[in-house]
Design brief:
The structure is a homopentamer of 353-residue chains.
Chain A lengths: L30 E7 L4 E5 L3 H7 L5 E7 L4 H11 L3 H8 L6 E4 L4 E10 L5 E11 L2 E6 L7 H9 L3 H4 L1 H37 L3 H33 L7 H66 L8 H4 L3 H22 L4
Parallel strand pairs in A: 3-7
Antiparallel strand pairs in A: 1-2, 1-3, 4-5, 5-6, 6-7
Helix pairs in contact in A: 6-7, 6-8, 7-8, 8-10
Chain lengths: 353, 353, 353, 353, 353
């Protein structure tokens, strides 16, 4: 079971909109940072309370506020009140068991995505990343700090690139693009594993191979569950007529949409490959079994009549004329030889081996 | 078979709209209670007849009338007449074999849901809950009294929360949210069972494991049948332009919609997991069988020629020169040893073990 | 093969619209009856020719004309001419291999349904029932007389119920409701059979059990083929803006639609159950086989080396020192005992039983 | 492989619209005939060149021009020029590997269908028939002459039926109706084969039975590929607002649409039946195998210990006290008898037979 | 793994729109050529830099610029700036892991397709071909030079055909048509392989046959992944109301659409055939296994009791009366003969062979 399967029912009974962080991660020290940027200048500040945000909000500048960790319920409540965010949205940010989704509200848009991380070959983990897009401000919420968005942060801070000039919606795009691009890394890891299994499969399949294939299959089920809804999310964004997403940026979202389709296609073809490999495994196992059975059958079928014959001449009857004939023994060996040869020829003809 | 499979045809032949309670539950004493609330005040009253309802209906207050048990046909008939409810709707309330659905009528909306209860691991039971939403009044109908809605009742009665101020449609939302949140509990129970089976499966699979997997699979079929139509119900509510559901509340229904999608996704991934586990079980069983067969084959194939040989020298021919040679017996043992070693090496090379 | 699979190509080559009764049933004496009713009065008359119908048609009254049997080609031709019915519609009434469908014409609506009858457990039979709905008249056409619509007939004739006041479209609804309600009876029969098979399956599965499961599966294929198109038919009726179906009655058709969805859902869950049962059967059979093979293997594997050993000391070599030793025989028995015990312990450890 | 699988890539590299007959059939003498008809009169003429057609085209008359064989490239080119037919359409007429389709052009409609012919039980062949529908003219193109349309031809020529009065679109309908009605013949043949296989299957299944089932399955795949697109074609015709298809005729096309749905439904239920039969076959084969294995196991398991015992008393030890006892031999026989009885009882209890 | 599965994540971390060639092919010398044509004249020029293009652009002429190889990043950047192409489009041209797609931009259309090449039977390779369609100019981008478009190039250069007169959109059609027509070659190759496997399968199936079937199955998965999106691409082109695609050319795109549907249909029927062949293979293997097992069983079952009997008379008891009877030995042989005959008759009756 991957992480997301923990306690989705923990909140049951509480009134909807109660802000509690529902998730598996321990409440680590939450880091909130704010990047204020214009085309010319970009600066980063730590955020402690709502005033740190309000004081940096100025016409003509764009803010990107990153939450790494979700245990800042007070700050979040303040933000909710200050910027008129619906309680259910705040709840969805904290409850990290959401399905990817896109919601348009009067003065902001809300996007939930899942990031995939693939530390080991078969331990894909997913985390929730939520985006709140305002006209001049982007808030991103993640469960913990890692280096997924570091590249992007460097780009905003240090290079006078497109990202500085195109506003908060482009910044939202940039974050989502990073998330989706990261899916390809997971694809690559999976593919390597699939390829190495294919090698093993054709070389020397073992029960362990079967187990690994099953594990990948399960992994794909989980990943698909996380990625598939993204398709509709991105369609919804493209169809949205919100003022917050400018026409110029729409083109970029279409690009992410294409990438998402590609990831889904790839996952689907992996699933087909995996199913094919299961068939191949089954067939190899059953072929080997058949081969073993054939050897047994051939051995047994040849020796059964011979053993019967030697038994016959091991009987202790007083009146068995053959026992006294001079050439009985060598003749019997000849018979053994002929009998087994005939049987082997028959088996050969029947293509038993 | 779960309960809902009983006698859906019991009513056949009666004119449509005849009010008969069709369901498995015995007609227990039906409890009807009424909660009248405003933002400031909330009171609960028992309801005996239609007048108990009419006397509490006042402008500015909202009523929540709970039916726990469905044997109050007279009261229901009176309500139907008083509030102009269509006979088919009344029939659907009493016949608890309905599919989840949403119907808009002139002066009220009608919603049918299923609650899931999961007393034991593999005995998920479902019950019908029907909602009649009027401008200033919500009626909920359940087959029996349990504590599912108690939390909600306490919230309305004792805390001055949002629920008191947002009208009957928000109250309908709150009821539906409780129902859907409860699905997650069932998910959790199922998941625990699935996980414990996975353990058993990898440790020591048994026919009983197989049976349990099949039982869960069947459970999932039933649950899906109950939950799947909910998707369309909630879509219909969101698309509805009824005056009874205010725009403010729509957002909350969208939230339930997301939850429902999540439950369905989870159920689907469970189904995939279960199917994977069936494959694994089959494969483990067949692997073990193969292992057994291999041992038999190796034993048999080695001893068959040896047994033939000892048979040969057990024959009673008078003229068998080997019988008289001094070293025949030790040489034969050597032969036995060599023969079996060679066969073992061949088998080893063919990777039979 | 159920009945509907007979001779759909019989009519080939004839110009379309030629009236020939295509169906399996022998042309029994066809019974045509007419019920004329108003809110206050209802009378039944036999119908011989077109004049019997025309003479009873009066403003303010509604006619329900029942055809039980389809060999009245002349009467039907007259009706076609008199009421301006399209030749293809008449053809579809007589050719009972139609798919369920709904057609709006200028002055009438045409509905084709299938009734299911389930005389024995696994012999579900279907018949066609066609409805021609005029403003003041409903014609129903069935292949033979049975008691399916008797209840309805009694209701119209003897009780002053809603049915008398709501016009021909409500009567059409009443007929269709009876047909769909009857599907639930078939569901119940199937369910009983499925449950009894489940019992047998867990108790003592036999090849016959497998055959029965397959038969039910086939039955479900046929039933689904008959019922599935009904969904679209009822959707089409609901979307229809024909004047013939009054808004008031639409609600009732929505009710049938819900029932149909429920039947289809139920059939689908039966199919899933049946597939699960096939898996269980297969698994039980293969488990038993495995058990048998294990016993063989254990027996054989233990006795094969023992039998080899007794063969060794049955050899007739002159120089076999063991043969002369005093304790050879008891020592050998001890060896037999130890060897088999060791093998049994190994098998036990490997969990072979 | 059925015929249609030949050389669809033959034309590659040629500019689109190049008129080459792509198909398997040898270029037989192509027969082109023209039927000119009004409500009162119908005459048939052979066609050699474009003038034969132009000279018969008169206001108030309808022409039906039949091409039986497709090697009249010149005539076709002339027709293309004269009646302003798009080169791609002409190409599609000659290249008989088209998918069924419907195309509306400015002055004509173009329909491609497939006819099915079923000379032997399992050799369904399909051919292309293309229709060009003009206001006063219908051209049909077939790969060879057979008697499929003869009936229709007779009807136009010799009976003053509806077909003479309803224009070229009705004639197109009549041709398409004949084609689709012919599908039912194929259905019947398939059904007979399926039924006869069912008999064999339950009586005495053989590898040949399996092969036949597989052949039918393949046949169904091919037929479905040919028929399935027809659904969309007929939907397109019904949705078309071309002036060439009059409202009156639309009703007839809806009728063909219904027939097509019925054929597809039937094919789908055949596929399900066939799959069920494959399962049954597999199960019967495996049941028989199990039975054989059981007999072997029972025989072996009973005799293995007995044979061991007789081996014991065949040993040549000098000191074996039993050998000298008076009643050893009969006691041993008694032991044999008891041992085998006990084993048989155990097997019986375990329900091995 | 086919080529397209390499490094789709290579670009991760770079800002979107960075021009890097992502693909497996080594950067060979890239060849860029320009064909300028009018109805009367067509000339070909090599292209080195952006000026080579600009100088040939004249009113009334159409340009077709072919990129064979994608390492001309500078030239491409210049083109992007000059003709106002969106950076994401340029990126998609260079990153050859795109899904087939169609994008409309203000002044140009962008199409991505995949070409299939089938050098050996089971090594289908796909490459990306991108098209940029301007009012008077078509740019095609391919990963390497091969002869796929040579035919087309010859047609433009040397024959005064339709292609010279119909503008850049028709040229785009001609390129796409060549690509799609080429799919049929792949279909043919696959079909030949499928047919030859079918032969082998019915003649003498071997594990290698199974492997080949699995390989084709995998090939089909890959091809489908490449071709399936084309359907939507061509639908989008047909629905597009861009000025760049003239109504006259739309008809041609509909033709490609039909071809694509045909390829997809064919691929689907191949997949069904392949699955059927896998079933047949499995059944043949299991049939042969059964046959082998039957022979073993019959041999063993007949000889087991006989061998027991000879063992009995090999025992060395002093008091065994039969040993001394004169006719024991011949009577025993008679018994052997009778016993085996009876068993054979029983097996025959049970239809074991």
């Amino acid at each position: 079971m991957t992480e997301a399967f923990v306690n989705p029912s923990e909140k049951m009974g509480l009134p909807p909109g109660t802000l509690v962080h529902v998730g598996k991660l321990p409440a680590k020290a939450c880091r909130v940072t704010l990047i204020r940027y214009t085309a010319d200048l970009a600066e980063e500040f730590p955020v402690e309370n709502i005033d740190d945000i309000l004081s940096h909000r100025q016409p003509g500048t764009t803010l990107w506020i990153q939450f790494e960790g979700l245990d800042t319920v007070e700050l979040l409540t303040d933000i909710g009140l200050q910027f008129d965010i619906h309680p259910l949205v705040l709840e969805d940010i904290l409850n990290t068991h959401q399905r990817p989704k896109f919601e348009e509200h009067r003065n902001y848009c809300f996007v939930v995505l899942k990031t995939l991380a693939c530390r080991e070959a078969l331990a894909v983990q997913h985390e929730q990343i939520s985006l709140l897009l305002f006209e001049d401000m982007l808030l991103t919420f993640r469960e913990r700090a890692d280096n997924l968005l570091d590249n992007l942060r460097q780009r905003v801070l240090h290079s006078k690139s497109r990202i500085r000039t195109l506003g908060s919606d482009y910044m939202a795009y940039a974050v989502m693009d990073t998330v989706v691009d990261n899916y390809f890394t997971v694809c690559d890891t999976l593919e390597e594993t699939i390829e190495s299994i294919e090698m093993t499969l054709l070389d020397r399949p073992q029960p362990r191979t079967f187990a690994t294939i099953q594990l990948i299959k399960r992994e794909l089920i989980h990943i698909r569950k996380v990625i598939a809804p993204l398709r509709e999310v991105l369609l919804a964004i493209q169809r949205s007529d919100s003022d917050l997403i400018h026409e110029k940026t729409q083109l970029y979202f279409r690009d992410i949409f294409d990438h998402t389709l590609r990831v889904i296609d790839t996952m689907d073809s992996y699933r087909d490959l995996i199913n094919g490999m299961l068939d191949i495994y089954m067939s190899i196992v059953s072929n080997r079994m058949n081969e073993i059975m054939k050897v047994l059958t051939i051995f047994a079928t040849i020796f059964i009549p011979l053993t019967f014959l030697v038994g016959v001449y091991g009987m202790n009857f007083e009146y068995m004329p053959e026992l006294r004939w001079r050439w009985s023994y060598p003749v019997l060996w000849l018979l053994f030889f002929l009998l087994s040869t005939v049987l082997l020829i028959i088996f050969k003809k029947k293509r038993w081996w």
